[in-house]
Amino acid sequence: MNDASGRDFSAAETGERLIDDQQFCELIRARGRTLLELARGLTARGVGEVALTRLLSGRLLLESGQMEELLDEYGASQNLRWSRLRAIVAALRNFARIGRVLAHVQRRLPTYSLLTVDADFHAATGERLRLVGGVVIAVAAGLLEEARLLGVDIADIAPTPEDFAEQLPSGRLARNRDDRITADVSITVTYLATEFLNLAAESELLRTSARVPPQDYAHCFPDPVSEERLRQLGFRFHNLQSLYDTHVSRTWVETLDPDLSFLRGHASVIYHLLKIATDLAHYYERHVSPQTGDGLLCERPVVDTDAIMATLFAYAMAFSSDFLDGGQRLSQNILRRYAEPGRLEVPVPSYRGFHVRPSNLVARIVAHYGSEVQMDLDGKLFDAGSPLDLFRANETINARKRRWLAAEIARVPPDQDGALEPSAIAAAVLAIVHRLAGEGKVILYRQPLEISEEIGRREGGVLENTVAEIARLQATGQLDIRTDLTVTFIGDKRVLADVDALARVGYGEDGFGNNVVLPKALSYLRR
After folding, report:
1. Are the C-beta atoms of 206 and 154 separated by less than 8 Å?
2. 134: enclosing H helix or E strand
3. For residue 194, how many other CB atoms are within 10 A of its CB?
4. CB neighbours (10 Å) of residue 33?
5. Which of 104, 238, 325, 419 has its CA 20 to 30 A from that of 383?
6. How far apart (Å, rounded) are the C-alpha atoms in residues 92 and 311?
7. Is residue 340 within 8 Å of 191, Cβ to Cβ?
8. Around Cβ 96, how many Cβ atoms within 10 Å?
9. pLDDT (tens digit, 9 = 90+) per residue, 251-297?
10. How far apart are CA 516 and CA 496, in angstroms?
């Protein structure tokens, strides 16, 4: 044990009592006999002969967990002699857990309602289960070898006689319970569909990772892939599944709407795939990564790292991405059917109206929910899901601004009413523009303004030249006209709520076009 200066303390100085190696060997043999028997049985049969069933995985998980706890109790991970055994036991527990999830998915796959994806998920799951079975055998062999090197007497350890085959009769029990009577299920359904869409927007790492070529797998750690990110994402999909089972399962709404069981199936299978991905990422980061691994299994590996990485990226991440896309389409269809129509009146964006950024943000909100939303401006309807259509509304908005401003200019007589010389008219126009800016009726984006040489040469006097020049300055982006113009969005209330949140923060911009932070409810727009 070291202090801050690096001085090594003896066991006597720290008050710790050390256990004799021979005594610890006997303890490991006695307490780990069942685990060693399981390892002996796995290695005796070989790759291809072992079916990694839920029963076998569960037993391995139990026994390796107990052995890991015992090793930790005696500080094996901090001991040069025993730390490798501790790492191997942890790896066995890790892959036993992965195998149990794979076996569960394979067994339950016929009961999941899933949309078809391009690759054969059933065949891929069986292939990965066989691969992980081979990994478990390799780790079991490494466990026996390490125990032998440490002096643990395993000569008379025989394979366990237990049969872990799952020979279950086919069929299911009859579904003869009545539908549950609950509160307004439709509210929960729309919440779940909305939450799935939000999760889909926050799961870009799955889509990105699914496209990574094998030679770049290792470069994905720790960004975008990490055990922490995968675990947090998996927890949220698990929560989605749990909410469904609590509020929607066995209700009349579920009976009438088959898409709901598909939504549950997608949330569930993604959750299980993320559990597998989390454990694989944990193994890589903890044990074999050049940056964060402890090196014990790098020097003398017991697992084919390439096969592990392929299972993580080409299976768990790739199929998660596929089912994520399917669940996204399902959620959008559900929300369209459960849409509650509404109207929302909001101000026009203060900086240049519906130019590129506000139009794109509104359209992305609409696309996120997959709903049809329209924007009403002076009785003319625009497709709120199309940035180009919203951008086209600026023609009407700018015309209305100019008409309003012309009335304001005409209401206040110019300082030089009778001046007809071009220079005098130009001076009068500039004076009016600056006066309007001082009154907050226009906002200047450039100073000094680049005035047109046409001032004073146009037909009409100061009023006509002012209106024409302001229109040109607005078109060239030198100024804009402040008004209280509003538009009305028509469509699903959930979409309108997000549009309202966007409008409250200036559509993501301040009055001079600088970006502002979007609220948490619109976090999906930041990606």
Report:
1. no
2. helix 121-150
3. 18
4. 14
5. 325
6. 16
7. no
8. 27
9. 888 888 889 999 999 999 999 999 999 999 999 999 888 888 887 77
10. 20
- What are the residue ranges of helices labelled H in 211-247? 227-247
Q: Which residues contact 43 (CB under 8 A, 6 or more apart)?
A: 137, 140, 141, 144
How far is the C-alpha of 419 from the C-alpha of 201, rounded, in Å?
61
Q: What is the pLDDT of residues 451-490, one digit of tens each?
A: 888 877 777 778 888 888 888 898 888 888 888 899 999 9
Counted residue by residue, the chain has a size of 527
Per-residue pLDDT for 417 more than 60?
no
Task: Find where tokens 């100019």 sit.
Answer: 402
Query: Which of 421, 415, 420 is closest to 433 using CA atoms?
Result: 415
Query: Cβ(403)–Cβ(366) under 8 Å?
Result: no
Tokens of 427: 């001076």
pLDDT tens column, 148-188: 999 999 988 999 888 888 888 888 888 888 887 776 777 88
Q: Note whether 507 and 361 are within 8 A (CB).
A: yes
Return the DSSP state at 168: P
Smallest Cα–Cα separation from 128: which of 301, 298, 307, 351?
307
**Backbone φ and ψ of 510, nearest 5°:** -90, -175
Residue 305 CB partners (closer than 8 Å, separation 6+): 284, 288
37-41 contacts at long range (C-beta below 8 A, 24 or more positions apart): 37/157, 37/158, 37/159, 37/160, 38/63, 38/140, 38/160, 39/92, 39/140, 39/141, 39/143, 39/144, 40/144, 40/154, 40/157, 40/158, 40/159, 40/160, 41/159, 41/160
Q: Name the residue among 44, 63, 34 with its Cα closest to residue 162.
A: 34
Residue the block writes with tokens 């929607």? 248
Report pLDDT digits (tens) over 38-47: 999 999 886 6
Enter the tokens of residue 31.
Answer: 């307490």
Q: What residues does 491 pair with on adjacent strands?
A: 342
Tokens of 461: 């006097």
Upper half-sphere CA count for residue 359 (Cβ side, 13 Å): 16
Both structure tokens of 4: 């801050």
DSSP state of 8: B
